[in-house]
Structure formats: C-alpha cells, structure tokens
Amino acid sequence: MTQTQYKIYIDDIIRRVEAARLKVSDHHIVKIIAISKYSTSQEIKELYEIGQRAFGENKVQDLEQKAQELEELPLEWHFVGNLQKNKINKLLDLRPALFHGLDSLELAREIQKRLEVKEMTLDALLQINSAKEQSKQGVMPEDALEIYEEIQKECPNIHLKGVMSIGAHTEDQSIIRESFLTTHKIYQQLKGATICSMGMSGDFELAIECGANMIRLGSVMFNK
Ligand SMILES: *Cc1c(COP(=O)(O)O)cnc(C)c1O
User: Fold this and answer.
1) Nearest C-alpha to atom 7 of ligand 1 is from which residue?
2) Is the confidence at residue 207, as pLDDT, over 80?
3) H/E/C letters for each residue in 69-90?
4) In this structure, what CATH number is given to the domain that contains residue 11?
5) Which of 83, 163, 212, 220 lies at 20 to 30 Å from 191 by C-alpha?
C-alpha cells in the first residue's frame, strides 16, 4: 500500500478509537500498539512515516530481525508473545519497551535472575486468562492479585505496569465484554498500575468501553 492508502485506514481507526474512548470519558487516553507480526519492515516504515511509533511482535526472532532492519528509526518495540525460557536472554538484549505476556511467577523468577546478571530492568504486564480458556496463556483471574504482588516482592528488576488480556474467543459480545471487565476490575485493584492492555482488531472498541487504555492492533492497522 502507499502512504496515502495507509492514511485512509489509519484515519478510520483513529476515529473509531476516538468514538469508543469518549464513551468512557473525555480524559480517557488510549495508546495504539501496531502489531506488525504479519507485516514487513517496509510496511512498518510506511506506518512510521505517517506517525505511528509503537510496534509489537510476538516472536523473539521476528522482533530481533525487524528491530535490526529498522534500527535507524526511533521505534518503540513491544513484545506481546509468550516467552519461552530459552529466549529470555535474547529478548532482554533487544530491550523492549514493554513485555505484555508475563504469565506466571515461575517465568518472572527466571527473568529476574537474568535481569540481575545483566544489571537491567524490564517493564512488564501480567497476562490474565480472564475467560479461563485452555488455549490461552495467563494467570487465572482469582489468582492475579496475589501473583502480581508476589512478583513485585520477589522480582525487583521487573517493573510491573499493569495487566494484559486477550478477549474471549467467541462471537458472543456479552462473553467478550465479561472477559474484559474481569481484567479491568483486577487492574483497578492494583496499586500504581497504569496500563490495561486489551483489545485487538476484532474487539478493540468493546475493550476500550470496558476500560482498556492500550490496544494491540494487527490486521486492521496494516489492512491485512
Ligand atoms: C496478533 C496479536 C494481536 C493483534 O491481532 P489482530 O487481531 O491482528 O489485531 C494482539 N495481541 C496479541 C497478543 C497478538 O498475538
């Protein structure tokens, strides 16, 4: 696509985000992370040129490759995938702005060890499996508060900023809404949390209405 074509798509998304956020409040600001996992470095560059700065990948090797290809641009890279233990060091070396997929105390402990060795910190979100789906990663909603506090206590090099969820995998809007509200309720109970990351191409307006202030848009953002 050309830049002009991207502008048309992006303008439409911005309008939809705007309408949804105003239903929450005039002061509800929503940040868009462009998930570039189906897109090339050239396509990322096109979006960058019309103003998008934050991008996200779900595979460490893809993040590494695209960050390298685009290293001259001041991009903010997010990692939204699930992290295997043998990829922790590689991810940390890429210094992502935010890791959205912290999904267990065990993984947090493992990351903490590596962070200590590297004398670094990592901003992260606790992923919550709010619809309790077998196919999804994340902590159970009833355990989330306790695990969040435990990570804060045990893992000083991990700076928890809030929570992340993927909406329930169904056509039923009321079930998707319920899953977002479950995550948002946990978010509101966390002291000092500032990020509630939920909503993707198919459900971002609903996520915003349920309180999301960070949305992760892949296919609609790149018009795939
Ligand atoms: C792929 C992905 C997205 C974006 O998905 P779209 O439906 O294309 O918007 C968002 N979050 C995560 C964790 C993803 O893996």
Assistant:
1) 201
2) yes
3) HCCCCCCEEEECCCCCHHHHHH
4) 3.20.20.10
5) 83
Q: Which amino acid, residue 126?
A: L
Tally of structural domains, the chain: 1
State the distance from the centre of ligand 1 to the C-alpha of 218, rounded, in angstroms.
Answer: 5
Which of 78, 80, 176, 183 best tests ligand 1's pocket when mutated (most atoms within 8 Å of CB)? Answer: 80
Does residue 224 lie in a domain region? Answer: no
Q: How far is CA 27 from CA 12, 22, 30, 196, in A?
A: 21, 8, 10, 15
Q: Are 224 and 211 in contact (CB under 8 A)?
A: no
Q: Ligand 1 pocket check: which of 38, 58, 63, 206 to mutate, most ligand atoms within 8 Å of Cβ?
A: 58
**Residues of the domain holding 186:** 3-217
Establish if 223 belongs to a structural domain. Answer: no
pTM above 0.85, yes or no: yes
Residue with tokens 């890279």: 77
Strand 122-127 and strand 98-102: the pairing is: parallel
In a domain, 222, yes or no: no
Alpha-helical runs (H) found in the chain: 3-24, 41-49, 60-69, 88-93, 105-118, 141-154, 173-189, 204-209, 219-222
191 to 50, 160, 186: CA distances (angstroms): 36, 10, 10
Taking only the tens place, the pLDDT of each residue in 25-53 is: 999 999 999 999 999 999 999 999 999 99
Q: What is the C-alpha separation between 75 and 58, in angstroms, rounded?
A: 16
